[in-house]
Design a protein that fits this description.
alpha/beta; Arc Repressor Mutant, subunit A; 3-stranded antiparallel sheet; 17 helices; 9 strands; globular
Length: 378
């Protein structure tokens, strides 16, 4: 089932990704990697520690604020995002933070349960250890956040405001045009040509809201945030968000585009080159852990923590692997209560393998002779 997505071109998504890039600068050669490394080198150690605390890979507390952006009324710009974060009720802020990653058990999420932890470090520690099961620096940070949420939120607000006004302000004008073009492409795919919607825009389950956000800094990746809980994320509204931030290069490569009158405009959606699709799938499968995940999911659907336990790897690593498999169209997600299960797209996988086998090994029915002169003299 394809979910009716809302398209959101807010710069807040790129802002959060920019902070994540600078917190852990990639070592590759993507077009924004050098910017992230150079920017990280300009930040003082105290600020760098703050960035690492909020935007690490294992439990991305700061990036989880992407789920807050769709609640904003009016312009979804970065000042409005900061106001929304500042005004968020403490139980909602805590619920947003403690459910943004893999949970070992279903935690108590009522406002009274969460407020009972505030100011009580012993209770906060017991809550994090029982229901979330983190270790190291991430565990320490989350315990502090649960026990002192107002102080933690002030730090996050100050950090985001600093980054917005200094480091992000320099690149935002160059991001805006491509982000808007990505929004046009997504709108065209979702609303005008629904039969041509790429596989990576198809989800199962019920989410409200379900948002597609073009994000220049993700380049050609798709990063999706959803919260595994059996109640609304925010009090006073039905809010079970699914936010897919999609790299604009991936969007525009899927849709095709041409530059006209100084702007990026979209042509009709072409069929993707099957060779590119097969290469993407084989790349996703070219990892022992992913092959083991595929084998386990062929047996039956499983959820993230179950896969992590069976394979002896972290929930964050599982999330990375299933993300790659999902982007390649090999698996899909289904929400059941407080858990998200992963299903193998068996027919799609078998068809992909069969089509690529035919492409590699079949003999053309009317082959072109290697030497036309030989044909003429025969």
């Amino acid at each position: 089932m394809t979910i009716p997505f809302t398209i959101d071109v807010s710069p807040a998504y790129d802002l959060l990704q920019a902070m994540a890039l600078v917190a852990q600068p990639p070592q590759g050669q993507d077009r924004w990697d050098a910017w992230a490394r150079e920017t990280a080198a300009t930040i003082d150690p105290a600020r760098a520690q703050q960035l690492a605390r909020w935007f690490n890979d294992e439990w991305p507390l700061g990036t989880a604020c992407a789920a807050l952006v769709p609640t904003i009324t009016g312009e979804h710009d970065t000042p409005a995002f900061l106001v929304a974060l500042e005004r968020l009720a403490i139980p909602d802020f805590l619920r947003l933070m403690v459910t943004c990653g893999e949970l070992t058990l279903s935690p108590p999420l009522a406002a009274s349960d969460l407020l009972a932890l505030v100011g009580n470090r012993h209770a906060a520690r017991a809550y994090v250890d029982r229901y979330i099961g983190l270790t190291g620096r991430v565990r320490t940070s989350l315990i502090h956040l649960v026990a002192e949420p107002e102080e933690a939120r002030r730090e996050l607000l100050e950090l985001v405001a600093f980054f917005t006004e200094t480091l992000f302000a320099g690149i935002e004008p160059s991001l805006r045009e491509e982000r808007d073009a990505g929004g046009e492409a997504l709108a065209k795919a979702v609303y005008l040509l629904p039969d041509a919607v790429p596989e990576w825009l198809s989800w199962t389950g019920e989410y409200s809201p379900a948002v597609l956000a073009p994000c220049v800094l993700l380049t050609d990746r798709v990063v999706t945030y959803f919260h595994e809980l059996d109640r609304s994320l925010f009090d006073g509204m039905r809010y079970e968000p699914l936010v897919s931030m999609v790299g604009t290069r991936r969007i525009l490569a899927s849709s095709g585009h041409a530059r006209r009158s100084g702007r990026l405009r979209l042509s009709a959606l072409p069929s993707p080159d099957p060779v590119d699709r097969w290469a993407q799938a084989y790349t996703a499968l070219a990892d022992p852990s992913r092959l083991r995940i595929v084998r386990l999911l062929i047996e039956r659907p499983r959820y993230g923590q179950e896969l992590a336990t069976l394979l002896g790897i972290s929930g964050a690593t599982i999330s990375h692997h299933v993300g790659e498999l999902s982007k390649a169209g090999i698996l899909r997600l289904e929400r059941r209560g407080q858990r998200t299960y992963f299903h193998i797209q068996s027919e799609a996988l078998l068809a992909l393998l069969d089509e690529s086998r035919h492409y590699l090994f079949e003999t053309a029915s009317d082959p072109t002779p290697e030497n036309p002169k030989d044909e003429a003299t025969s």
